[in-house]
Amino acid sequence: MNILKRLLRYVRPYWKTLIVISVLLLLRTGLNLLPPLVQRQIIDQVIGEKDLSRLAMLIGVLIAVHALSRVVDFGDLYLRHVVGERFIFDLRVRIYEHLQTLSLSFYESTSTGELMSRVTNDVNALESFVTHGVSLTLIDLLRLVGASIVLLSLNWRLALIMLIPLPFMAVGLWIFNHRARPIYRRVRDRLGDINASLQDKLAGIRVVQAFEQEEAELSHFCEVSQDYLQERIFAIRTWSLFFPALHFTSALGGALVLGFGARMVVNGHLTLGTLVAFLAYIISFYEPLRRLTQVDNTFQQAIAAGERIFELLDRESDIQDTPGAVHLDEIEGDVVFDQVHFRYAKEETLDSDQQNVLHDITFEIAPGEAVALVGPSGAGKTSIANLLCRFYDPDHGRVRVDGHDLREVTVQSLRQHVAVVLQDTFLFNTTVRENLLYGKQEAGEEEMMAAARAAYAHEFIEELPEGYDTEIGERGVKLSGGQKQRLSLARAILADPRILILDEATSSVDAEAEYLIQQALDEVMKGRTALVIAHRLSTIRDADKIIALEDGHIREVGSHQDLLSQGGLYSQLYERQLELVKEETES
Questions:
Q1: Among 61, 142, 147, 359, which one is most buried in terms of CB atoms within 10 A?
Q2: Model confidence over 450-459: pLDDT tens digits?
Q3: What one-character DSSP code corresponds to residue 12?
Q4: Regarding predicted confidence, which is higher, 372 or 156?
Q5: What is the DSSP letter of 464?
Q6: Alpha-carbon distance 450 to 547, whole Å?
Q7: Which domains are delineated in the chain?
């Protein structure tokens, strides 16, 4: 019931419309109860007494009741579905808003397809319940109460006979509820698996086709789909057994009433019109009961979907603003890492030091200084950049900007002063213009183009079919690797950050493009604090300071010439790259 209460909170803003709907439901219930009474009058007073004088009036009343019922139905259906759609809109926006607050650690352990399943399939299950389940429940409860009152007033003996099947129906419903909810939860989980598989494999379709794994991936998709099919069949078997049994039980009640009622009519204890009306009201009694059990089936699916949705909404971000967090309006760009230890996995069963990807990292970047991080893959370079952006918090030690511990600064204000060009360039499936303006929505045309020129992207953009308005496809698939990275760099330049992080920013460009971008970077980094993660060591020879990392430890710190003269890690990496360049040139 807690899930249901939480769902109803999202409907609360529409309480005025809900009052109107409730009035319409009352009218609809009352109008639906009138036709059998009119039919009773026609049978007993017109047919029974062979008096046609009142027939036209009674038929007119019957037609008017049906016409008014349809008008009320229109208002009810329209308002109910509008409220349902608005409810779903509010909930879906709330989920998306919450997803944006969750830290990267959450996304590293949760597939995109699973999240998409919760935002789409699970929310749609709730839409069906809110739009149809809640209103039909109210309608049927009202019809049930109204029909019970009328039936008792018509003949209390037949009314008692009609109640005989109810205990059996109640027991059956309890058994069904006990079994159905875990089944529907498993169904929704398996559907999430299908979405996760689809998202993963379609995103990597180039790799699938390049390695000719179509058959293997088809087999895997068949497996997850088969799991979903089995759960669906199990759910279908459950309600396929329950509902026919329920209908038989209610039909048994109608048969008993008909048998006893026919005997009473023959013996003169009941009029034929009353029996016909009673039988009509039995439909109004048992039909709501049957529909309530079907609504209960929808309810169980909605509860299962609601559990998954609120399980997501209850997930708190690892990165949150502390009470009294400082808002950074302006910064100089002084960056300090003070005895920082960090690990991604937080498994208590393992030695924390063994899990660490950074060990006792201590260094400082003065305002306007360019510091380069170098080292083999897995040395911890990107982890340092992640901590500076506060995508994660250190397990020990502090990261400070202008003397402020990042855990005591609002996340939003920090990231307003930091721009990142990632190694894994991500562009949105929209136009070049919209991708560039993502870093500064209010930028003008000239400012945007100036940023593109600074990143040496303006020329190739102008050559695109629609220029800056060219659609570049999902993840920029219509552009080369170098073009995508130059767009990403232009986006960061346009944001005009005080701190600029370049994570392998030139790793996917050719030598000519690298030279042009490096010239642009030299200008862009002037006066800014820059943290450069370098793959090609030739690009960071002019850095103010170079930090060589290995296995999460700082091994060396110094200028390019100083580190070369030491003959240590940096010198080895540099010599190795020179050899590779020489081999490529000779080949």
A1: 147
A2: 888 887 788 8
A3: G
A4: 372
A5: S
A6: 32
A7: 2-313 (1.20.1560.10), 319-417+499-507+526-587 (3.40.50.300), 424-496 (3.40.50.300)
Average pLDDT over residues 401-414: 91
- 17: which 2 tokens? 């419309």
Task: For tokens 């329209």, name the residue.
Answer: 78
Distance CA 247, CA 472 (A): 58
Q: What is the pLDDT of residue 584?
A: 61
Tokens of 344: 């991604």
Rounded (5°) CA angle 279-284-285:
90
Q: Which strands sit side by side in the sheet containing 499-503, from one edge to the other?
A: 418-421, 499-503, 529-533, 370-374, 545-550, 553-558
What does DSSP assign to residue 48?
Answer: T
Q: What is the DSSP string of 361-428?
A: EEEEE-TT-EEEEE-STTSSHHHHHHHHTTSS--SEEEEEETTEEGGGB-HHHHHHTEEEE-SS----
pLDDT number for residue 359: 93
CA distances in angstroms from 308 to 126, 225, 439, listed in the order given: 11, 20, 33
Q: Return the beta strands (E) in 475-528 as ranges.
A: 499-503
Dihedrals phi, psi of 266, to nearest 5 degrees: -60, -35
pLDDT of residue 365: 92
Judged on CB neighbours under 10 Å (0-12, 13-18, 19+), 192 is buried
* In contact, 169 and 246? CB cutoff 8 Å: yes
3-state secondary structure of 506: coil
pLDDT band at residue 399 using 50, 70 and 90 as cut-offs:
very high
Beta strand 418-421 with 370-374 is: unpaired
Per-residue pLDDT band for 349 (boundaries 50, 70, 90) equals: very low
Helix pair 15-41, 55-101: axis angle to 10 deg: 150
What's the whole-number mean pLDDT along residues 124-151?
72
Could you tell me if 491 and 407 are in contact, meaning their C-beta atoms sit under 8 angstroms apart? no
Mean pLDDT value across residues 143-166: 77
Q: Give the strand order in the sheet containing 335-342.
A: 358-365, 335-342, 396-401, 404-405
In one letter, which amino acid is 423? Answer: Q
Contact between 371 and 363 under an 8 Å Cβ cutoff? The reply is yes
pTM beyond cutoff 0.85? no
Which H helix or E strand runs over 524?
A: helix 511-524
Q: Which residue has the tokens 């048994």?
A: 252
Distance of CA 499 to the CA centre of its chain: 32
Quick: pLDDT tens for 536-570. 776 788 888 999 999 999 999 998 888 888 888 98
Most confident of 23-37, 142-156, 390-404: 390-404
Residue partners of 488: CB distance under 8 A and separation at least 6: 421, 422, 425, 426, 427, 505
Q: How far is CA 183 from CA 246, 281, 504, in A?
A: 20, 35, 48
